[in-house]
Amino acid sequence: MPLNRKSPPARFPKKALPADAGNEIWLVTLSDLLMLLLIFFVLLFAVILHRQNQAVATPAAPPPPAASVEAPPAPALPPARDVVPPPPSQTAALEADLAELLGERTEREVTLERRSNTIVVTLPERIVFDSGRSELKGSVQPLLEQVARFIRNHPEVAVEVHGHTDDRPISSPRFPSNWELSADRATQVAKALVRLGTDPVRLSVRGFGEYRPLAANDSDLNRVKNRRVEVQFSLLSAGP
């Protein structure tokens, strides 16, 4: 009689999980993340909106006023002075004072004349300079002292020193033309007057070369007349 063998235990098949179960888990996780991001942005937007409302409700403080700086007052200028036509009586008195001071020099050495409202003392070249030079002769010192005394005694007078030459050309390293010679001669006379006490503020110097002759440059005698220095005096008056 055959032996009974035990039959193997029955095996039940395992229940298979759905194929998309793993995908559903990921979808749930992703949806949660998106929800959190949405909540975060909503909160962020609410915070920003709240701050903007506060900024609008609170008025901005006005900027501090700029410090005003006042410019210092301009210094007062001295009253302007200008040459104006004086009464003829004043000019005549001025001429008389100068003629009295110069005395007989007006006959032997210098010429004194009135040109409109200006008194002119003409110093010929022969008593002031050597030919073609601008150094003052020592013999002219007493005459210049008298002129300087007159200027000091008349503070109401402005003084111009004009240099003139004839038409003979000059060309040297120091004097390329008669303009330089005439200007330097006038300057030397003005410097001498300053050394003798004249206020330099009242002095001006001009050189005209051969372009303002007293006589036509057609003879030696006329050329001698044209070589000169003129000291011109004009009355000053306080301007407005």
Task: Provide structural commentary.
The protein contains seven helices and six strands. With 240 residues, it is α+β, with helices and mostly antiparallel strands. A hairpin with a 2-residue loop joins β2 (111-115) and β3 (118-124).
Spans where pLDDT lies below 50 across 5 or more residues: none
* Coarse shape: rod-shaped
Kindly report the name of the CATH homologous superfamily of the largest domain.
OmpA-like domain
Name given to the CATH architecture of the largest domain: 2-Layer Sandwich
- The counted number of beta strands is 6
Number of helices: 7
- Any idea of the CATH topology of the largest domain? 60s Ribosomal Protein L30, Chain: A
| Structure class | alpha+beta
- Distance, first to last CA: 165 Å
- Mean pLDDT, to the nearest integer, reads 82
Task: Give helix and strand order, one letter per element, not per position.
Answer: HEHHEEHHEHEHE
The radius of gyration over CA amounts to 55 Å
Helix fraction bin: 40-55%
Question: What is the percentage of strand-forming residues?
Answer: 15-25%
* Biggest sheet character: 6 strands, mixed
CATH class of the largest domain: Alpha Beta
Number of domains: 2
